Amino acid sequence: MLRPILIWPDPLLKKKALPVSVVDDGLRALVKDMFETMYDADGVGLAAPQVGVLQRLIVLDTSPRDEGAQPIAMVNPVITAQEGTAIWGEGCLSIPGETEDVERAATVTVRFQDESGAAKELTTGGLLAIAIQHEVDHLEGVVFVDHVSVLKRELIRTRMKKLKAADEKPVPAKGGKPAAAGAAKKPGKREGRA
Ligand code: NI
């Protein structure tokens, strides 16, 4: 089932997510929905708070960009080590049409539970490392624009507010100007959005 993705700024996107206490069928159903929603939006990652669920759960699939990458769900992910720095142009499914360079660690080690509740550890680099850091940020109520300058962030905030206002009024008033600003802002390039 597709779930609606919250668009920043939204109060839920600023909240810290709670640990998942039990990995059960309900959680696995949420994982399935999150993958479906992420693929539908052409994203490489999605965090549960982006669909309004304040739990520490993320899904990732960087296979459009990384050959051989597999879909992966991480329950209660914790970054335990990081190394080096890397700058990627990041986007976010909650901030459509915006891309900004963000400096992150180049390599991370993350501990998490898989969909069966088993403890796992992964050390990785490249886009997957960036996506993991981006998604773990979401669990802390942080989005990628919190890593850019105040000026850029405020410009993006203004554009997102216009986008949301346009989406809330999809039907143009009779004889009025069409409320299609939101549709016009739809991005052409989506890779790297999470
Ligand atoms: Ni995001």
Structure summarized in a few sentences:
This protein has 194 residues and is α+β, with helices and mostly antiparallel strands. Helices cover 27% and strands 25% of the residues.
Structural notes for this entry:
This protein is α+β, with helices and mostly antiparallel strands and 194 residues long. It has one domain: Alpha-Beta Complex (Peptide Deformylase). The chain is 27% helix and 25% strand. It has a 5-stranded antiparallel β-sheet, with helices on both faces. Strand 6 and strand 7 form a beta hairpin. The longest helix has 19 residues, at 150-168. It is globular. Nickel (II) ion binds next to helix 2.
Helix share of residues? 25-40%
Listed once per kind, the bound small molecules are:
nickel (II) ion
Total number of strands = 7
Average pLDDT:
90
Output the strand order for the largest sheet: 1-2-3-6-7
- Architecture in CATH? Alpha-Beta Complex
User: Helix segment count?
Assistant: 4
Largest sheet: 5 strands, antiparallel
Taking the alpha carbons of the first and last residues, their distance comes to 19 Å
Coarse morphology: globular
What is the CATH topology descriptor? Answer: Peptide Deformylase
Q: Note the beta-strand portion.
A: 25-35%
Tally of separate domains: 1
CATH class: Alpha Beta
Structural class: alpha+beta
The Cα radius of gyration reads 17 Å
Which stretches are low in confidence, meaning pLDDT under 50 for 5 or more residues running? 176-191
Q: Could you give me the name of the CATH homologous superfamily?
A: Peptide deformylase
SSE pattern: HEEEEEEEHHH
